Amino acid sequence: MQSPAAPDRDANWFLYGAWRRRINRLAAGFAFLALTGAAPPKKGEPPLTEQTQKSGGMIDADQAKLHFDSADLAIEILPEREAIAATAILAFTAKEPIDRLVIDLDRNLPVTAIDIDGHALPATAWTNPLGQLVIRLPETIAAKHQVKARIRYGGTPHVAVRAPWDDGFVWSRTRDGKPWVASTAEGYGCDLFWPCLDFPTGEPTQVTLHITVPKGLSAPSNGVLLGTDKHADGRTTWNWRIKRPNTYAIAITVGPYEQVSGTYKSRFGNSIPMSYWYLPGEKQQAEALFAEFAPTLDFFESVIGPYPFADEKVGVVETPHLGMEHQTINAYGNGYAKSIDGFDWLFHHEFAHEWFGNQVTAANWDDYWLHEGFGSYMQPLYGQWREGDARYATMLDAQRGKIENRAPLISGKIRTEEDVYEQAKGGPASDIYYKGSWTLHTLRWLIGDAAFLEATRRLVYGRTDPRPGNFTPRFGSSAEFQAIVNQVTGKDYGWFFDVYLRQAALPDLVSNQAGGMLSLEWKVPGGKAFPMPVEVRMGDTLVRVDMAGGRGTLALPTGAHVVIDPMARLLRRSTAVEALQAYRRGPSAN
Asked: How many CA atoms lie within 13 Å of 539's alpha carbon, on the beta-carbon side?
C-alpha cells in the first residue's frame, strides 16, 4: 500500500506529505441495502462492527483449527444499486475435530442460505451478530477431513470514505457516466465483501472468481483469466483463478476498460504475460506507463530475484482511488503523474509488493514494516540502478524528514493492521514506510551489498537460489530477517535491530573536537552498546571509524575541515529534522 499521507505534489511526487488523519467512520444507522433498488449508501456506510473493522490480531480458536483449501466466489456487481449478490463455496480441512465453522463476514451482507457438503442447513444453524458467521455443522468433522460450505449472501458492502486508506467499495463514474467500481480491503480485511479468515496466515491455497458485470463493462482481477461467459441479457461473467493470494489481495475492479498487453522475456528464461487495463481516451498515457513494466521487472529480477507469479501475470488496472497491492492486479490511480525521478513511483511501489507483501507476507501485522519498508526502499534503489548515486541520495533524502519516531517499528506482540497503521492506536504509522526504508539503507551500508541482497533474497524466497518453479509464497517475520542477517554475515546484529526496530528514538551521535582529536559516542535508549561504524571526511580523506563499545576517536590533521557521515549512511537523530517537523506542526502543536 502507498504511504499513509496526503498528496504533496509541489514538494515531491515520489512521496506523500504529512501524515493524514483517518476520517471518522459514520456511526448512524444505515443498516444495509437489500437488493430492492433503495437509495445508494453514503460514504462510510453501512456502519461496521468492531469485529469487521479488525483485521489480524489474535486468531479465533475455532479458526485456528482450519486450513483454508479453496474459495470459489461468484459475485455479481450491481452498480445502480451499489450492491452485490454473491455465492461463496469454501473448502476447509480440519486440523483437529471441529463441530462448527467460524468465518469472518460483514453482517451488512446478510446470509440467505448455507449448504454443508451439499446439504441445506436450516436458518437456525447460523448466526452473525457481530461480523463473524458461526455455522453449526450437522456433524463433527474429524481431523484431516475436508468440509465444504456454500454460502449465499449479498447486500451493500461498506463504502470507503477515502480509499484506499479507508476500506470498502468505491462506486464511481467515468467521464462519460459509465460505472467505475473498485474494492480495497487491506485495513479492515477481506470480510468486507467475501467470507474469509481475516488474518494474514488465513490465506486460501486457491481462489476462483466469477465476477458478473453489466453490459459493456470488464472485470479484470487476480491471477489467470479462465474465460468469459456472455449472458443473453448482455451481462458478462469474468472467470479468474489465483494461487495463494493474501487475504486482502482479492480485488473487484469494474469499468469500461481498454487493455494493452505484452510479454516479458525474463532473464530466468521464462516468459511473463503483462497487461494494463485503462479507461477509454487514455491510450497514449497508458502505453507510456505500460512501457515501464519491462524495465521495472528487469530491475526486480536482477536485484531481488524472479517475479513470483510468472505463471499468472503482471497485471495493473486503473482505479478511482490511488493504489493498492492486489496480487497480480495492482490498483493504479496516480493520474500518470510525471516525476523528476523519471518513473511512476506509485506503479513502482505497488509492484514492489509482489515481492514484499505478496511473495513474502508478514505472518503478524506487527511486522508490517517488512512490506512497506522494503516496498519504499525499492524506489530509491531503482533510482540508483537507473541513474546512479545522486538519484538514490536525493530520493532517500525526500523520505528522511518524514520519519517521526513516535513508536517502535515492532512491538513483539500480535497486532491488527490498524494497531500498526494508526498513530492514534499507538502504532508506528508512516514510519513503517520511511523509517523502515532508512533502516534498510543503513543496514545495507553496514553489512555490504552482497550480504544485504543475499539476506533479502532469503527473506523473500526462503532460499538463496530462486528460480521459476522452485519457490512458493511464504510467511516471514522481523525475527527471521534478523536471524538471516546474522547467518549471512556470521555476526550478531541484535544491537542494530534492537535499536532501529524495537525502540522509538533514533540513536544520537555525539561528537566533540578538542586537542586535535575527534571523539564520537553513540547515545541510544537504555544506554545499550551500539557499535555502529561512522565515516568521517577530513579534508580529502575519508576514514571509517570503528565504534567498538559505541565510542571512537580520531586524530585530526591541523586545520582539516571535518564532515561526519558525509554520504548520509546512518539513520540517526537530526536536530534539523526535528526543528523542521516542529515548524510544520506550528506553535499550537508544541
From this structure: 7
Average pLDDT over residues 6-21: 32
Q: Which residues of 446-464 are buried (b: 16+ CB within 10 A; e: fewer)?
A: bbeeebbebbbbbbbbbee
Mean pLDDT of the chain: 93
| Confidence check: pLDDT of 27 > 50 | no
Residue 408, domain CATH? 1.10.390.10
Whether 391 is in a domain gets the answer: yes
What's the domain count of the chain? 3
- For every residue of 181-205, DSSP letters joined together read EEEE-TTT-GGGTS-B--SGGG--S
User: What is the mean predicted confidence (pLDDT) over 109-137?
Assistant: 98
Angstrom CA distances, 430 to 18, 20, 349, 382, stand at: 9, 9, 15, 21
Q: Kindly report, residue by residue over 501-522, the tens digit of the pLDDT.
A: 999 999 999 999 999 999 999 9
Q: Are residues 119 and 222 in the same domain?
A: yes
Whether the per-residue pLDDT at 118 is higher than 70: the answer is yes
What are the backbone angles phi and psi of residue 215, rounded to the nearest 5°?
Answer: -55, 135
DSSP state of 24: P
pLDDT at 218 over 90: yes
For residue 243, pLDDT beyond 50: yes
CA distance 17 to 401: 10
One domain for residues 339 and 408 = yes
Element (H, E) at 378: helix 369-387
CATH number of the domain that residue 547 is part of: 2.60.40
Domain limits at 524?
508-570
Q: Is beta strand 66-78 parallel, antiparallel or unpaired with respect to 206-213?
A: parallel
Strand intervals (E) in 41-97: 66-78, 83-94
Distance CA 357, CA 243 (A): 15
In a shared domain, residues 154 and 132:
yes
Q: Is the dihedral of CA 478, 482, 485, 488 positive or negative?
A: negative
pLDDT at residue number 2: 66
Beta strands in 487-532 (DSSP E): 508-514, 517-523
* Residue 576 belongs to a domain: no
The arrangement of strands across the sheet holding 562-564 comes to 541-545, 534-538, 562-564
CATH of residue 84: 2.60.40.1730
Is the pTM higher than 0.85? yes
| CA–CA–CA angle 139, 144, 146 (5° rounding) | 55
306 neighbors 355 (Cβ within 8 angstroms): no
Among 502, 528, 553, the domain-final residue is: 502
Given a cut of 70, is residue 138 above it in pLDDT? yes
What CA–CA distances, in Å, run from 455 to 367, 381, 474, 543? 17, 16, 15, 27
Q: Is 264 left (phi over 0), alpha (psi -120 to 50) or beta?
A: beta
